[in-house]
Amino acid sequence: MDFKPLRDHILQLAISGQIVPQLDSEPAVDQIGTAPAPEEVPFEIPEKWQWVPLANVCTYIQRGKSPKYSEIKQLPVVAQKCNQWDGLHMESALFIDPATIPSYKPERFLQSNDVLLNSTGTGTLGRVGLYNPAVNPYDQAVADGHVTVIRADQSMILPPFVKYVLTSTAFQTIILAAGSGTTKQQELALSKVKQLVIPLPPLAEQRRIAAIVDDLFAHLEQMEAAYSEFAGPMTEHFRNTALQMAISGKLLPQLDSEPEVKQIGTAPEKVPFAIPEKWKWVELGKLATSVQYGYTASATTEGNAKLLRITDLNNGQVDWSLVPYCEISDQDLAKFKVSVGDIVIARTGGTVGKSFVVEQLDNVSNAVFASYLIRIRLKGDLPVSVGYVKYFLNSPTYWASISCSARGSAQPNVNAKQLASLLIPLPPLAEQRRIVAKLEDLFSGVDKLGRLVAFT
């Protein structure tokens, strides 16, 4: 679950006057400065609030100073890498040359609750934090030239409220749009920061806003920790449990009307677990016309066939528009051409065992599978469902077998012989189809629940 949209929603309510009620006992904010009220604003605010330039409610706004660094750990420099969304990371700080300390004016030394705004670079520009001396093991700190220090006039505005405003989605959009320069080296000019027009509530209301936002964020952190500890693993546990029940005959009842499976190949002497009487243990290779290594070729931007690689398999899906091409002869194309219903399995590396069932080719006329994949093409005249095999290839039993087969070398590997010898529990064909339908229904429900929880 992504908690960021909920945090963003809370911040927007907070900075637009919708998170706490306005009280008659609190006076309206007087217009600060001589500049007229802005004609265009990003959202509406209560009558008692005012839109004001950030510079009008701060005692100090300045970029940090480019330091001369030293190995002497006396005065740390807060750089952009220190100023993260989850707080200030002083362990990442470098140190200035002590001989240069006298060149720093008193106002350049960071003060408690200074707002720190990263002002350079795509991906870092716009990141906002509050300076907390408690996380700094040294007496003082300064900012480097990529961080803008914003010191609020606390007789008018609270530092946490400044942070809420600048962190909000509305103002992050404004800040990023105000950046200039190359794509990789965006710069937020000091003048742009000072000119930011922000909403200003009465001071007492700011305190009430800060209290409720801090409380809500504290609860969110607890929810996030609980979700990380339980919900994610529980969802994975549910899927694994359902898959294991499905391939062991415990997910659905066996029906008298469904005939017993005939043994295909030799019955194994040792089996992983007990299965219903009508089921049979079968070697995966006995269900296939071939268990075959892929085609060796270099990926190109042009060619006469798409080249499906391990890296193209993403969470059981393939975006065929991103799959590269290769050149292949007609003879090899006939041997390695991918068809709907084919199963490909990664045979090496960190993704060893990962599988993909080709369910559609998205109008791709010719596609072949690369050499680090193994293809299994099921026999069309046997009572086996490709959907059932697909779910078996995601089950704990399958992954335990892959783990055992891939051991013994620095680079995990499985070969075609090992895959062909894997034992698969085979139910009657009608029951396979019922199992597939039930799993699809269960997993669809889990996915919908996940989306619902994420949305709320």
What does the model show?
The protein is α+β, with helices and mostly antiparallel strands. The protein has helices spanning 4-15, 159-167, 169-178, 190-195, 203-247, 330-336, 386-392, 396-406, 416-420, 429-455, and strands at residues 50-53, 58-63, 69-70, 76-78, 83-84, 87-88, 94-96, 115-118, 128-130, 142-143, 147-152, 180-181, 186-187, 197-200, 280-283, 288-293, 305-308, 325-326, 343-346, 355-357, 367-369, 373-378, 423-426. The strands form eight sheets. A four-stranded antiparallel β-sheet has the order 2-11-8-9. It has a four-stranded mixed β-sheet with strand order 3-7-4-10, with no helix packed on it. Strands 16-22-19-20 form a four-stranded antiparallel β-sheet. A hairpin with a 4-residue loop joins strand 12 and strand 13.
The dominant shape is elongated
Uncertain regions: pLDDT < 50 for 5+ in a row?
Answer: none
Question: What is the overall pLDDT average?
Answer: 92
> How many DSSP E strands?
23
Radius of gyration: 31 Å
What does the main sheet amount to? 4 strands, antiparallel
Q: Beta-strand level of the residues, as a percent range?
A: 15-25%
What order do the strands of the largest sheet run in, or round the barrel if closed? 2-11-8-9
Count of discrete alpha- or pi-helical segments spanning 4 or more residues: 10
Class computed from helices, strands and strand pairing: alpha+beta
- Distance N to C terminus: 10 Å
> What is the helical fraction, as a range of percent?
25-40%
EC number: 3.1.21.-
Enzyme class: hydrolase
Keywords: DNA-binding, Endonuclease, Hydrolase, Nuclease, Restriction system
Organism: Candidatus Anaerobiospirillum pullicola
